[in-house]
Automatic annotation (TrEMBL):
Cellular compartments annotated: Endoplasmic reticulum membrane; Microsome membrane
Primary localization class, coarse: endoplasmic reticulum
The name this protein goes by in its record: Cytochrome b5
Species for this entry: Sistotremastrum niveocremeum HHB9708
Ranges where the Cytochrome b5 heme-binding domain occurs: 14-90
Amino acid sequence: MATVTSSATPSAAKPLITFAQLQEHTSKDNLWILLHRKVYDVTKFVDEHPGGDEVMLAEKGRDASEAFEDVGHSDEARSLLDAMLVGDFDTNGPLKVKSIPAATSIGVERPQQGSILPYLIPLAFIIAYTAYRMSA
Ligand code: HEM
């Protein structure tokens, strides 16, 4: 039954996508991907995906957030998502979505721990030796 509630909830411009609906879009020419509780229509993008179509198809009908974040997608990749948004995922359905941080630190190099100790020890030795030679 269609219950139109657009006047009651102004923010409901995008529909709530159920698990059943997600599962209706699982072929390469009709593919939806669930990422961070949002559903995206990637049908037009799947052929251009730099990671290939197979990895995307492998995430059909389920929560792709973990696979997406494991790759460490760039901000540019994330910026493509908006244009493909279908709607929010209905989290009250049978598919439980995990909460994964949108940008993990996986693969992000830490700045070097700038320790000067390895330089300090030989320097102290040189100073001590010079002082010894000068006093001798
Ligand atoms: C709508 C969702 C997605 C978009 C918009 C997207 C976009 C992109 C973009 C732009 C790149 C190039 C590198 C970068 O900018 O980060 C990329 C690479 C990649 N993507 Fe995705 N991606 C999506 C979903 C996925 C999913 C679900 C997987 C599953 C594992 C995946 C796997 C990969 C892999 C493995 C690469 C690396 C390719 C390489 O460097 O050889 N992507 N993706």
